[in-house]
Amino acid sequence: RLPVIVGQVALRTHPSRTIGFILDNSARKELDQRKDEFINMASHELRNPLMALKMRVQLTRRRQQKQSHNEVVTALSTLEEPIKQLERLIEELLDVSKIQAGKLEYRKERVDLHALLREVTDTLQYSYPSHRIVVGAPARACLIGDRDRLGQVLTNLISNAIKYSPQAQTVEVKMDTTEDGITVRVRDHGLGIPREQCEKIFERFYRVATPQQKGITGLGMGLYIVARIVKDHEGIITVESEVGKGSTFTVTLPHRRCA
Ligand code: ADP
Fold first, then answer.
1. pTM score above 0.95
2. Tens of pLDDT along 239-258?
3. Which of 26, 40, 54, 142 could form a disulfide with 258 if both were Cys (CB 3.0 to 4.6 A apart)?
């Protein structure tokens, strides 16, 4: 039997066990590599808003004497965006570590998913005037769940649809109530995802490595968190995608009648 090379070590073992070891090893290597890339990207993602804050604070301080009260207020409001960016990043990092520790907690309450979707899309539409978010939803869609966490799912899927559609300006969000539950479909006409990577995007720190997606920053935490929240609500998330045509993410949540 030929020796199988695993790293620097040549092994002579039972083939199936050796193959198992190779897979384990390469999966671990891939995660290690993903973590290294993550640390590198995370440092940039943290540093950029921090630098923006630092520069704006310095500028405001330097001009303070010559500025009117209104100008100072305007200058201060430019600090909001980088602060929000940092907040989002830190929240996601905390969520990932809570998931890893099995400590993501939920407050279950009656949620009007229709109202929540309106709220989320109004906020995103305001923040991203470059895209048009088209919403189709029934008048009422009610379930029991964690309102904030479900809002996080919707926000994440819709903002990804915008982020990964640099050229296509329309994002469609369709909510339906069926026998199986409430379905939310988020469809974009953007870059798309290669078929073999569609499952992997729900893994921790995974990012699609196509030339088209290269310039788009992110840390690969959002969908990992989204998938966990959906699963913890006994729901299902799926994705259909074609490179160059766009992607459709579908979330189905069980229907629990609420008065
Ligand atoms: P992030 O966007 O911060 O990298 P996510 O976990 O939200 O992390 O997404 C993981 C990866 O899945 C992204 O890096 C991107 O490659 C891919 N992806 C997610 N949503 C879309 C989409 N709507 N269109 C194309 N690719 C997507």
1. no
2. 999 999 999 999 999 977 66
3. 142
